[in-house]
Amino acid sequence: MQSPIDLIDTRVQVLSHLGRLNRDYKPAPATVKNRGHDITVKQVRWKGDAGEIKINGTKYKLLQFHWHSPSEHTINGSRYELELHLVHKCSQGNLAVVAIVYKYGRPDRMLTKLFHHIRSVDPNHDKELGIVNPGDIKFGRSRKYYRYIGSLTVPPCTEGVIWTIVKKVRTVSREQVRALREAVHDGFKRNARPTQPLDGRPVYEYSP
């Protein structure tokens, strides 16, 4: 059961009892690293706990976040300019990823803060960012989201990942997307995995 998938509103099961996405993020020391297929911002030590989310009563600690361009998940067949993944892990080792997709428009606040560091990242060395607040990542006022079970979208494509995709499409500037693509690909334009077959999996939408 792989990711990403196409999220089609006519095929999702709308559930109100899933509950709103509970986030408790904290500012923490972080580094930026170019992994070649994406740019990853991750905390550098556990002393700087970046917080957690809670899903079905289980706490998942925030490990790192990174971007893919164009978006990996599609919504009703539409692919967007950028997708952010916040990767979390619980004490049992299971993973949960929160995704946000972006279209062209106003600059994204988090990318604006990290813009200089992203443009100057060395592919061979991590770069210290100081304190980064994941709470600066805006989800939008709508509390709606999609939920399904899939996989990581980069090798080893581990399965059993709980995916939460924020339904609200955020905005990002063309310059910000261009900087991400240039930093990752050295001129190559795309780092998004194609959508995968649903294979009968249920997809839920939380709608309060």
From TrEMBL:
The keyword Metal-binding applies. Transmembrane segments: none annotated. SMART domains: Carb_anhydrase. PROSITE patterns: ALPHA_CA_1, ALPHA_CA_2. Its EC number is 4.2.1.1. It is found in: Plastid, Chloroplast stroma. It catalyses: hydrogencarbonate + H(+) = CO2 + H2O. The keyword Transcription regulation does not apply. It holds the Pfam family Carb_anhydrase. Belongs to the alpha-carbonic anhydrase family. Belongs to the alpha-class carbonic anhydrase family. PANTHER family: ALPHA CARBONIC ANHYDRASE 4-RELATED (PTHR18952:SF271), CARBONIC ANHYDRASE (PTHR18952). This is Carbonic anhydrase.
